[in-house]
């Protein structure tokens, strides 16, 4: 069976501790388990202090079939950040703005040119989703329509090829919409011009949503993921233009990362949806789930490690 692990963000000390806690041992430089495999839910890079080591551990496990992985939005961002824009000389597909550089700075600082080239080559091989043996994994949102778009265009152009990346970075292209929702999740624009401040200190007019459930009867605060504590959001209903993709109750369990949950005791979001990002990049927990084939997820199967020296 599988041990699913959420966002790592360069926190190698916590990753190694978590693997040991899950009974993986290092053999010839690769962490293995006698009868289990890891599924990484993406976001290996940026923010943390040991990005090179995280890449080495996770890539080696994947290459030696001790693990599998899906792509996170930070790996996608890295690929577009380092890919020249063929339509604008001197520009990149992800512009080198102050915000984008700051978000990627830890990776730029810690990886030399060869490390970065090798990492980007590995990122290109990471799929958008995995489905196997009654379990699914995706970084932010499982939407069959979006995954079908990505699969069709990948068949035509090659997954994460240069032409694919151009389309993924072009705002009016269907690939852009589908990959944004898959890697970053659907969002809702807040009514009345309201702004919220995210964990990186950026003011945003949008918030991530509980895309796996319909919004009827919920306030903006309750439908946000994680739920927002701003008093004014509790008084506002979810806008009509929100676009969720409700996850069927009979569907296989799906595991996601991405959402910076704050709880200190992880629990499933629904019977068959679980998030494994509990903010290790800030001061939270690196989180895994020991999947045993169950159709209804259980809080007792989460395994966590606290951040050692939060910034």
Per DSSP, the total helix count is 10
> What summary fits the major beta sheet?
6 strands, mixed
Order of helices and strands: EHEEEHEHHHEEHHHEEEEHHEEEEE
Through-space gap between termini? 35 Å
- How many E-type strands? 16
CATH architecture of the largest domain: 4-Layer Sandwich
Shape: globular
Number of domains: 2
CATH class (first level) name of the largest domain = Alpha Beta
Could you characterize the architecture of this molecule?
The protein has ten helices and 16 strands. It has helices spanning 12-21, 51-63, 73-81, 98-110, 113-123, 144-157, 162-168, 174-184, 220-223, 231-234, and strands spanning 2-5, 25-27, 30-32, 37-40, 67-69, 129-132, 135-138, 187-189, 196-197, 203-204, 206-208, 254-256, 273-275, 277-278, 285-291, 302-306. The strands form five sheets. Strands 1, 4, 5, 14, 15 and 16 form a six-stranded mixed sheet that branches. A four-stranded mixed sheet has the order 6-7-12-13, with no helix packed on it. Strands 2-3 form a two-stranded antiparallel sheet. Strand 2 (25-27) and strand 3 form a beta hairpin. Helix 6 crosses helix 8. The longest helix is centred in the middle third of the chain and has 14 residues, at 144-157.
Provide key terms for this protein:
about 300 residues; alpha/beta; Purple Acid Phosphatase, chain A, domain 2; four-stranded mixed beta sheet; 16 strands
């Amino acid at each position: 069976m599988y041990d699913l692990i959420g966002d790592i963000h360069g926190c190698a000390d916590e990753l190694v501790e978590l693997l040991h806690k899950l009974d993986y041992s290092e053999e010839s430089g690769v962490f293995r388990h006698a009868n289990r495999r890891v599924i990484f839910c993406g976001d290996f890079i940026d923010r943390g202090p040991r990005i090179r080591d995280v890449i080495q551990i996770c890539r080696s496990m994947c290459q030696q079939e001790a693990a599998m992985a899906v792509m996170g939005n930070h790996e996608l961002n890295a690929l577009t950040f380092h890919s020249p824009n063929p339509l604008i000389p001197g520009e990149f597909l992800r512009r080198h703005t102050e915000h984008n550089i700051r978000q990627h700075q830890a990776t730029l600082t810690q990886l030399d040119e060869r490390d970065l080239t090798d990492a980007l080559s590995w990122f290109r091989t990471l799929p958008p989703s995995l489905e196997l043996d009654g379990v699914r994994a995706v970084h932010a949102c499982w939407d069959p329509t979006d995954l079908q778009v990505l699969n069709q265009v990948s068949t035509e152009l090659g997954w994460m090829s240069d032409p694919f990346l151009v389309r993924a970075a072009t705002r009016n292209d269907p690939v852009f919409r589908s990959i944004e929702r898959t890697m970053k999740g659907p969002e809702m624009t807040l009514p009345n011009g309201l702004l919220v401040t995210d964990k990186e200190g950026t003011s945003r007019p949008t918030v991530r949503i509980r895309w796996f459930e319909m919004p009827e009867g919920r306030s903006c605060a309750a439908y946000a993921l994680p739920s927002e504590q701003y008093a004014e959001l509790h008084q506002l209903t979810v806008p009509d233009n929100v676009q969720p993709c409700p996850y069927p109750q009979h569907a296989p369990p799906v595991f996601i990362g991405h959402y910076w949950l704050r709880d200190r005791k992880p629990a499933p979001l629904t019977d068959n949806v679980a998030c494994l990002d509990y903010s290790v990049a800030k001061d939270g927990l690196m989180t895994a789930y020991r999947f045993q084939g169950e159709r209804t997820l259980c809080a007792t199967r989460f395994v966590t490690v606290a951040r050692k020296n939060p910034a």
